[in-house]
Amino acid sequence: MLWAAIAYSSLMASIDIASLGLAKAAYTGAVPVAIGLAVSVLLYAIQPLLFYNALSFEGLAVVNLLWNVISSIVVTLLGILYFKEKLTNLKLLGAAFSIVAIWLLGMDS
Description:
Number of domains: 1
Radius of gyration: 15 Å
Strand content: under 5%
Structural class: mainly alpha
Distance between the termini: 14 Å
Order of helices and strands: HHHHH
Shape: flat
């Protein structure tokens, strides 16, 4: 049931995106610090429940890797596309390896 684990991991990554985006927006002054940080903390409080449910579909290692890789890719895209951050070629290569990691996790032994 890798697809269910990917769905849960994607939802957890979405929380990361919203929380980290709000934290960055608070840091830059785009939103009030109190609101940005409070909403981030509330969103992060949901993640353990999602992680717990994801464990019924895959093991701890796979769920955690999926969550981290999906979150890393999408948060990186958020930084590049929305906050106009720059990445070096080496960092882009690292992001490409993350995509390969997701593909390898999806393969059966």
